[in-house]
Design a protein that fits this description.
This protein has 206 residues and is mainly alpha-helical. The chain has 2 domains: 78 residues, no CATH class; 121 residues, no CATH class. Helix content is 57%, strand content 6%. It is built from 8 helices and 4 strands. The protein has a 4-stranded mixed sheet with strand order 1-2-3-4. The chain is globular, with a radius of gyration of 18 Å. It starts with a helix and ends with a helix.
Length: 206
């Protein structure tokens, strides 16, 4: 039992390291969209906060999780900070489109992986705009049980897999109920993310 706990903890740390590497890469590419370095770092802290399991996601809770003395930096980012909003959106779309590009039977699509669509936004209007933008840029969305692509939607057959926001790959490692393109895309994403995790762990140890 102790061995299993240690293994789970190690896997979680690897996942966190892989996510940090990916986020650093994305924020590096988006750096020209920010007038000040401090604004870019605050944006990164906010992105990390949105990915955390918090009781609520607002400037107060995310600032506390990031170690800020108060919510003021994040409030300033949302209201008055100088940044190129459209440039950030275009950078994110291009980054997502290129990160998982390939040429296998999954169609070579880039994939936005999220445990559930509510992780993109819990506000319906914002969620719809984000989905519309991603699909317009040919970036499919893969969740624990669904695959949304510009011209098709795939759903896991039978019993849906439980959603684990801490590990979006958990459900995808279980191929039961997945078929066709959905199964191929899920397998590809799991393989790529686990490879990224191994690279991140190797970098951490050096």
């Amino acid at each position: 039992m102790e061995h299993n706990n240690e293994t789970t903890a190690a896997e979680a740390s690897v996942d966190d390291a892989a996510h940090a590497v990916l986020l650093d890469d994305l924020m590096g590419r988006a750096a020209p969209c920010f007038a000040r370095r401090e604004t870019r770092l605050t944006c990164r802290d906010m992105a990390c906060g949105l990915l955390m399991e918090l009781d609520d996601h607002n400037c107060w809770t995310m600032a506390e999780a990031a170690g800020h003395p108060g919510p003021y930096r994040m409030q300033h980012l949302l209201s008055r900070a100088r940044c190129d909003d459209q440039g950030i959106l275009d950078t994110v779309a291009d980054w997502a489109a290129g990160h998982l590009a390939g040429g296998d039977d999954s169609g070579g699509d880039a994939v936005l992986l999220t445990a559930s669509l509510s992780r993109i936004s819990r506000h319906l209007g914002k969620l719809m705009r984000a989905m519309e933008y991603l699909l317009a840029h040919d970036v499919p969305m893969l969740t624990a049980n669904y695959l949304l692509r510009p011209r098709e939607v795939w759903v896991r057959r039978g019993e849906l897999a439980p959603v684990d926001h801490r590990d979006p790959l958990a459900a995808l490692r279980d191929p039961r109920g997945l078929s066709g393109v959905h199964r191929a895309v899920a397998a590809k994403v799991v393989k790529q993310m686990e490879a990224d995790a191994r690279v991140a762990e190797a970098r951490r140890r050096t």
